[in-house]
Amino acid sequence: MIMRQKGTRPVIKLPRAVYITICELPAVLTILYYALRSVPGVMDWAAVSVSAPVRGALGLFSSIYPFSLMEVFCTAAGFWLIYYIVRSIIVTTRRREKLKILSKRLLTVMVVILYVWSLFCWLWNSGYHAPGFAGKNGFAGDGVTLEALTGVTRLFAEKSNELALMVKRNDDGRYIEDRREMLNASTEIFQNIADRFPGLSGRLYRPKTMMFSWLMSRTGYTGIYFALTGESNINSQEPGFMMPATVAHELAHQRGVFAEDEANFVGIAACVTSGNPVYEYAGYLRGLMYLMSALHGADYETWIEISGSLRFEVISDWQENSDFWESQRRVETGVEFLDNILTTVTVTVSDAVDTVYDGYLKSQNQELGIKSYGACVNLLVEYFAMH
Prior knowledge:
Blueprint: E1 2-6, E2 9-13, H1 16-36, H2 40-62, H3 69-94, H4 98-128, H5 133-136, H6 146-164, H7 179-184, H8 191-196, E3 208-209, H9 213-219, E4 223-226, E5 231-234, H10 243-254, H11 260-272, H12 277-298, H13 300-309, H14 312-327, H15 336-363, H16 376-384
Parallel strand pairs: 3-5
Antiparallel strand pairs: 1-2, 4-5
Helix pairs in contact: 1-4, 2-4, 3-4, 6-12, 6-13, 6-16, 10-11, 10-12, 11-12, 11-16, 12-13, 12-16
């Protein structure tokens, strides 16, 4: 390391070999990932022996802070990128060696992006290419019969009816459970399901509500697990009766369940076996939504019958959830032309985010893309038909 004076400001100049190594390392890690991701054994080793302990340590560190480090990281990265672009334009226009200066600054951005992406590949994407939760736990994955689908759907409907009366509601029948208490109880909900699936055992860290929940709502998302900080982040605007199921889904990601359909199954199974009525109701209700959607296309008459058996509270909660997400695709300021413009922008952005995320999932061995969330039906039927 060499330190020299430039004016009154000390400047540290590293040897060229060090600079080259710093720039090449993320590229090497990224190339190595793409070269090996088709080898399940290597990806399984990476997910279990590298990703899990590192994400656990990051989760422990981030749990110290009550706010989302992911939001801080993403916000800071956004501001830095804007600043760096503006600064690069200014510096480049003022110097003679414009091409050389611009190339160096572009290289800096590319190296930073590659570092983030290479870490994300090894800490998270590797799990998509390793043997999944279902395969490791003996799920057949051969599809389900209509009889089994109907039976499990009836079970979830009955449990939803029963538990709908066990959660706090106001005089109008609206759900009023305290969200803070629900989040505080979240780290205990995997105890029973971990007895059945030991791979789910381990320490859980309390999910964090997001400051930018309004943005999550507008784009149609309820939560996100961020591997680079080991955090589960929750959209605080989601209807309260659904939030426990979202929490459980993101905690499943914490415990190394990567695929979205499997995380949905694990989250629902953890909820309904938790012994906590708030989580049980959310788990059965979310599972019922997926099961009823599948049954609608398979046996419409039975779907009508089960729909007619649902209590007012269950139907009301279901409708409230639908109304909430529909409202997030509209902007209402009271000025018609402005509402039309902002609503169009909102829908366009939401659809674009879905398209990007769908492409990302498909590129990571998730053939159904964004539709994989609903693919948990087969797992639910296979498991609950036998238990």
